[in-house]
Specification:
single chain; 251 residues; alpha+beta; 8-stranded antiparallel β-sheet
Length: 251
């Protein structure tokens, strides 16, 4: 790939829209061409800055009216309780409710920030800064986000990228452990974005939200005024141990 060819695809690459063999070809070129790599990082930072300052476009009133009309025209099926048609399941249902109450697990829908973290992980977004020193990666965000970014505790950093959660800049750091598993940390200002996920549990006295997507697990929590979403191809038990270890080593 030549520099001219790379220049035509860098915008799509910076947005994470290139995959497969074409993505590998671009990254081979960027690894050997400092000028193109610098342009790629500049594009990523510029787009993140623009997204951070653009207001959210309002939903057109005509669209609101059409959506409301469609939803209003739908019939709502009457709720049928399971034990009304299958009374033998009543004892088992009561036991399941009691088990949930005992373990403290509450079901919720998955919030936008968890979905964003999962999409970013699956897209393998290009990094704005590449390096193995997690402290240097975390320091790179100084002045680019409005909060100090703590370095991941598991080490083995691959790089970092400036992203946005809603309108606020956020930090996205990717690591890879000795076992080969890739772990991504999304650190953000939670004032405009709540954390919700299918499972809410208390681990070592801390509230953690667990979500999942095909092949990956996600754990989200609050700490010292910041929001964290940790995404990995680890199983949920291993991800829980990783997140719990970070509480004792870095916070």
């Amino acid at each position: 790939m030549t520099c001219a060819e790379a220049d035509t695809v860098l915008p799509a690459y910076s947005d994470g829209e290139v995959a497969g063999a074409e993505r590998a070809q671009i990254e081979r070129h960027l690894a050997s061409c400092a000028a193109c790599a610098s342009r790629s990082r500049l594009q990523s930072r510029f787009k993140a800055a623009v997204r951070a300052h653009l207001p959210r476009p309002p939903v057109p009133q005509a669209l609101r009216v059409r959506v409301s009309a469609v939803l209003g025209a739908r019939e709502i099926a009457p709720r049928r309780w399971l034990w009304a048609t299958h009374p033998r399941l009543m004892p088992a249902a009561a036991a399941a409710v009691l088990l949930v109450a005992i373990t403290g697990t509450v079901r919720h829908s998955q919030s936008m920030v968890l979905q964003q973290a999962q999409r970013s992980y699956q897209a393998e977004l290009p990094m704005d800064i590449v390096g193995s020193d997690c402290r240097s990666i975390a320091s790179w965000f100084r002045g680019r986000v409005d909060f100090p970014v703590p370095p991941p505790a598991d080490g083995g950093c691959q790089g970092g990228r400036l992203v946005n959660v809603r309108e606020r800049p956020a930090a996205y750091i990717v690591t890879r452990g000795h076992d080969g598993h890739r772990v991504a940390y999304l650190v953000f200002d939670p004032r405009d974005e709540s954390i919700e996920a299918p499972d809410r549990r208390f681990v070592n006295g801390r509230e953690i939200y667990f979500g999942s997507s095909p092949g990956i697990s996600t754990a989200a929590y609050h700490d010292r005024g910041l929001g964290y979403v940790v995404t990995s191809d680890l199983d949920e038990a291993s991800l829980t141990r990783l997140v719990t270890a970070s509480f004792t080593t870095t916070h």
